[in-house]
Write a structure and sequence with these properties.
single chain, alpha/beta, Rossmann fold, 13 strands, 15% strand, binds nicotinamide-adenine-dinucleotide
Length: 345
């Protein structure tokens, strides 16, 4: 019998690519998503369509529902025997959390609590869940290591992700749930999120508007290609932390946290330069597009951080993996997909 995974946020950017990879590899996958309209749900439908194409053997079951619905989550765990749970559903985005804090509490705290409770009552082999590089807040020491203190979030989004790590640790200790939290660093790629900078830049330039470059362009981001994230998640899934007995005779927390990032931060202006070039080369924007006339340098926004930079040595040490994709190659894949999705200017 094939192994069964429960993937939440399956119509989301990372969840759809992960689910597609899992069904191709022979997993049964139950995917949950409420297909909310935080960003264009059309793109979520497109991802579900891609997923159905990948699912030649009919191994993917989609459940349209809410993580905050405790009865639904309990029922899904009772009806299926999940070997691995990958919790990716969340209210994402830093800026949106300033205007809509409740959405973060519902999905990221109540929703994740429901998953933990279900794992407590229906034991699973491994709970893998998405945290975020945003837990590092304004950390000035780079690269960011899992050993660094992360007690100073600068957004509610970051605070909920850090809370998820704490709740997972406590549940792991109390109920011997093998659990791994993954701090993803700015994920990009085809079918990506339209609320993220690279996608918004493409939309704005295509519409002839002016892109805003925050912190006067003096920002560095560790951009990570979606396939590299999926590879990292798949490797982590296969390697649950061991439940061990502690000195007090009780089990220790089988919980750990990894960074997954490119570990090669890029200056925002260099990033924009590469994006512009591939958008022209892939036919999204015309030759000779006057980029200088379509950009504005603006100050830092609340909730933003000047740098993200992943130390991925723990992931490399334990799982022999580090992300590989070059920024230009990843952005080209995005631009090719984008041209088909939105069309040329
Ligand atoms: N993309 C990134 O750069 C990045 C970086 C750090 C962390 N993360 C985290 O990784 C995970 C996946 O991110 P993504 O980029 O794929 O985001 P996404 O928004 O594309 O995917 C999340 C999905 O979860 C669904 N969802 C949200 N709340 C839900 C709820 N209450 N019930 C059911 N479904 C719900 C949404 O409809 C969406 O399809 C998230 O937890 C996010 O916080 C992403």
């Amino acid at each position: 019998m094939s192994a069964c995974a429960f993937v939440t946020g399956a119509a989301g950017f990372i969840g759809a690519f992960l689910s597609a990879r899992l069904v191709r590899e022979g997993w049964e996958v139950v995917g949950l998503d409420n297909v909310n309209s935080y960003y264009d749900p059309g793109i979520k439908e497109e991802r579900l369509w891609m997923l159905r194409e990948a699912d030649a053997e009919g191994r993917f079951t989609f459940v349209r529902g809410d993580l905050a619905d405790a009865a639904l989550i309990e029922r899904l765990f009772a009806e299926n025997s999940f070997d691995v749970v990958v919790n990716l559903a969340a209210q994402a985005g830093v800026r949106y959390s300033i205007e809509n804090p409740r959405a973060y509490v519902e999905s990221n705290l109540v929703g994740f609590f429901n998953v933990l409770e279900a794992c407590r009552h229906h034991p699973v082999g491994h709970l893998v869940y998405a945290s975020s590089s945003s837990v590092y807040g304004g950390n000035e020491k780079v690269p960011f290591s899992e050993e660094d203190r992360v007690d100073s979030p600068v957004s509610l989004y970051a605070a909920t992700k850090k809370s998820d790590e704490l709740m997972a640790h406590a549940y792991s200790k109390l109920y011997s749930i093998p659990a791994t939290g993954l701090r993803f660093f700015t994920v990009y790629g085809p079918m990506g999120r339209p609320d993220m900078a690279y996608f918004k830049f493409a939309d704005t330039l295509r519409a002839g508007g002016t892109i805003k470059i925050y912190n006067m362009g003096d920002c560095r981001r560790d951009f990570t290609y979606v396939d590299d994230i999926v590879e990292g998640v798949v490797r982590v899934m296969a390697n649950p932390p061991e439940v061990r007995e502690g000195a007090d005779g009780l089990p220790t927390a089988a919980h750990r946290v990894y960074n997954i990032g490119n570990s090669d931060p890029v200056q925002l202006l260099d990033f924009v330069g590469t994006l512009q070039r591939v958008l022209v080369e892939e036919g999204v924007l015309p030759e000779g597009y006057d980029f200088g006339a379509h950009r504005e340098l603006v100050p830092m926004q609340p909730g933003d951080v000047p740098v993200t930079y992943a130390d991925t040595s723990a992931l490399e040490r334990d799982l022999g993996y580090r992300p590989q994709t070059k920024l230009e190659d990843g952005l080209r894949e995005f631009a090719r997909w984008y041209r088909g999705y939105r069309g040329p200017q």
